[in-house]
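Hi, does anyone understand the following?
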Amino acid sequence: MEKLQELFVKSVNHYFPDEGEAWLSKLPDLIYYCEQKWSITVKKPYSLSINYVAPAVTRMGEELVVKICIPGEGFMNELEALQLFEGKGMVQLVDWDEDYGLFLLEKINPGTYLADVLEDEEACEIAADVINKLHKERPKQTRFIPTVISREQNFKRIVEKNPNGLGPISRDELSLALTIFTYLNKTTKKQYLLHGDFHHYNVLESGEGNWIAIDPKGLIGEREYDLIQYMLNKLPEQGAYDVIRKRTEIFMSKLDISYERLLLWGYSHAVLATSWSVDGENYDERFLNGISIFKSLCESSAGAKLEEVYLND
């Protein structure tokens, strides 16, 4: 087995401080287990984040993908999401192993990332089409998939642990964003099965102009919320405001969603996403920039400061 990618090792240890190192040491054995279990040969991995993902081929020459995860809540959420989406706008699940956190998935060819589509408006229209295929009304029963309320609870813990603010986010900004996040959850009327991490690098081309989502986290909530991570990604250093505004217009034209709630979710999630990215003095500047952009769009739409509307008591 080749030396593991440095950023991959760092990310695994950052997000899984308790079990990451031990899991990394077991990867060669897990890869061998996959090869024996499914009669496949695992090839050189893709560029890795926090899971080990690599192309594989069966003895009959069929191309597949192996994804090795740390077993636990995240794995079970993704497994249930893949099962519930049933391959509609989503990569097909071939097999899995709950004990070891393993997925065997269809291989999407050519597998071009949506991020590689140079024209941003074209990419956004494709994203909207994928979302339309993907989203379905909340299933009557789910075993593991959390709701957006779980993210609100996570947000509350962040605010409580950081009474003076977190990184570049002030105490007042955290408080306002949490207030709006809570308001949106309380006033949600219809819930859907969401991707949970929908962005340019989780949508791949599968030929003939068809595009497929991958790597669902699995989430239950409003459709608007599922668009925000996409809106915050792949932004230019200059002109990000206009890009987000245009993406908003495209999503509004192609999806049955609320403009006001889309912007409010955008602002509140941008604050949450920025807080997740804080690591010492480092943080994601794109997400931080998204806070002011969404706040400006919200206030332009409402004709008032967010503080005046949501902190007036």
Q: What stands out?
A: The chain has a mean pLDDT of 95. The CA atoms of residues 193 and 264 lie 20 Å apart. The first helix runs from residue 6 to 15. The first strand starts at residue 40 and ends at 42.
